Amino acid sequence: MGLVIIFALVAVLAAIGTWTALKNKNILGIVFGAGSFVVFGGFALLTLINSGYPAVH
């Protein structure tokens, strides 16, 4: 369960960074922020689906 929380926090921070990069028109920041959001958000979602909530042992 801790892994899901860490992935979700990184995804939220990547979304905030992407939004900031959009406001500043920073293309490289948009690309890396959006990519990080998709990857870590996907990992968080799929880990949550695979392990269940709460985690089943």
Summarize the structure in words:
The chain is an all-alpha fold. It has two helices and no strands. Helix 1 (2-24) packs antiparallel against helix 2. The protein is elongated and about 45 Å long.
Give the structure's gist in a few sentences:
With 57 residues, this protein is mostly helical.
Q: Radius of gyration from the CA trace?
A: 13 Å
Low-pLDDT runs of 5+ residues are none
Averaged pLDDT, please? 91
- CA-based shape: elongated
Helix and strand run:
HH
Which sheet architecture does the biggest sheet show? none
Protein structure class:
mainly alpha
What is the helix fraction of residues, given as a range? Answer: over 70%
How many angstroms separate the termini?
11 Å
User: How many helices?
Assistant: 2
Number of beta strands: 0
- The protein's oligomeric status is single chain
Work out the strand percent: under 5%
Looking at this protein, list some descriptive labels.
single chain; 57 residues; mainly alpha; 2 helices; elongated
What are the SSEs and their pairings?
Blueprint: H1 2-24, H2 27-51
Helix pairs in contact: 1-2
